[in-house]
Amino acid sequence: MATAWEQTNRRYDVLHAVLEEYADTAAVSPASLVTIDVVFGGFGEFLLAVQRRWQRSFDARLDMVLEESPADLAGALRGLTRELGRDLAETRALLDAYAGHPVLAAGQERHRAAVRAATGIDQPEVAADRRCPLAAGHRWWRRSAALSGVSA
Fold this sequence. Notes:
The protein is mainly alpha-helical. About 75% of the residues lie in helices and about 0% in strands. Helix 3 packs parallel to helix 6 (about 100-120). It starts with a helix and ends with a helix.
């Protein structure tokens, strides 16, 4: 039986390998879907891990923005979102491709409320301005997911 630390490292390795695969192909292979099931216990748990990765990165950068107290906070948040979208393009693309997945709704709403409480700005206003470099690949991901039986 693997230790908790080994399981955590395995999940981390699989998450990054799948995101790298997605960045290269705008799809996840059937073999990766099997690995996701084994390591994460299902595609939904994998999506939650991807969502947590995005939100933790966003929150860390948000702290830096809030420390600077910019005059245009909404503009700074849009800039933060664009910058993070470039730095974590594969993460953002995967989350955008599955934006309507029910497993993501609660975490998205919690994060939205936290950002709103910290900034006074509603997150969808900021999120609507993101420009993801992998956006053109979304339709390929959806097709790949449909062919592999994963629901979008």
